[in-house]
């Protein structure tokens, strides 16, 4: 093709910034547009999150009222209310459940088409998921937060860097969540049916991520073990603790650094698993 460059920029986990920004942005925008078409589902989902927000908030406020000093695990009533309402908004942004696209494509054999594309499969799922998360930040995060502000006294951060740090923490939470969902779905390469691992993930992710109650309600040794040895607290607990300034500033920043480390490790693990899966497909003649 004289005078035309028909090449498509390739995105590689090893060199993610080489000729890749335009492709990554286009994929992210496609993820945003995809979820923007489901307007009724967005409204219904926001309403459901708000209803459960009232239930969770009153339960945790009752716990605080029944504890001497009114500060269970160091959380004040305003911090607990903020934990609940911001958590209800983040639940859809981080998206712990409901994603089976990769395992479905593996079962149907359509995953072979992904290997022919000029974008690495991990990036091919990560970029649209970031676009989905941006859509959720606008249309699923804001409504519960507004309702919480109307009906409850929420905690307002006092440190100037808390909100920017919270935004960075959300990005790492979305990346880490997608990586874990990718790994769980990728078990279909070997099991051919990932419904068992996906069900186990669904049952455990909410509890271990701090959705139902703050993980600091657990014994100290168990909470620390979950934070250091697993990526789960980084999906919800860390962003929420950062926003409500549960810890001193150095520890607040340290939690986000730990979150970033886990996100990088999980993405690298996704690349390794995908590479081994591709070798298995070749061995099977697929």
List keywords for this structure.
286 residues, mainly alpha, disordered N terminus
Care to describe what's here?
InterPro entries: ABC-2_transporter-like. Keywords: Membrane, Transmembrane, Transmembrane helix. Pfam families: ABC2_membrane_6. This is ABC transporter permease. This protein has 286 residues and is mostly helical. The chain has one domain (31-283). The chain contains 12 helices and no strands. The longest helix is centred in the C-terminal third of the chain and has 35 residues, at 249-283. The protein is globular. It starts with 20 loop residues before the first helix and ends with a helix.
Please provide a brief summary of the model.
This protein has about 290 residues and is mostly helical. The protein has helices at about 20-35, 40-65, 75-95, 100-110, 110-115, 120-150, 160-185, 190, 195-210, 220-230, 235-245, 250-285.
């Amino acid at each position: 093709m004289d005078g035309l460059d028909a090449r498509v920029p390739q995105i590689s986990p090893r060199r993610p910034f080489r000729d890749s920004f335009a492709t990554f942005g286009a994929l992210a925008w496609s993820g945003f547009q995809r979820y923007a078409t489901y307007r009724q589902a967005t409204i219904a989902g926001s309403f459901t999150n708000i209803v459960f927000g009232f239930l969770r908030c009153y339960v945790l406020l009752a716990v605080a009222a029944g504890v001497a000093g009114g500060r269970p695990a160091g959380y004040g009533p305003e911090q607990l209310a903020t934990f609940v309402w911001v958590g209800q908004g983040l639940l859809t942004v981080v998206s712990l459940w409901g994603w089976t696209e990769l395992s479905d494509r593996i079962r149907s054999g359509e995953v072979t088409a992904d290997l022919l594309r000029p974008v690495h499969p991990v990036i091919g799922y990560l970029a649209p998921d970031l676009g989905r998360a941006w859509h959720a930040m606008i249309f699923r995060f804001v409504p519960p937060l507004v309702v919480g502000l109307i009906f409850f006294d929420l905690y307002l951060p006092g440190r100037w860097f808390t909100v920017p740090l919270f935004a960075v923490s959300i990005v790492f939470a979305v990346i880490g969540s997608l990586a874990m969902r990718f790994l769980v779905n990728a078990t279909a390469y070997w099991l051919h049916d990932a419904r068992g691992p996906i069900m186990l993930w669904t049952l455990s992710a909410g509890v271990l991520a701090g959705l139902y109650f703050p993980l600091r309600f657990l014994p100290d040794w168990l909470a620390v073990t979950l934070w250091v040895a697993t990526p789960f607290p980084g999906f919800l607990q860390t962003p929420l603790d950062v926003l409500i300034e549960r810890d001193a500033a150095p520890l607040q920043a340290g939690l986000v650094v730990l979150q970033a480390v886990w996100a990088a490790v999980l993405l690298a693990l996704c690349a390794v698993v995908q590479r081994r899966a591709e070798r298995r497909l070749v061995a099977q003649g697929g």
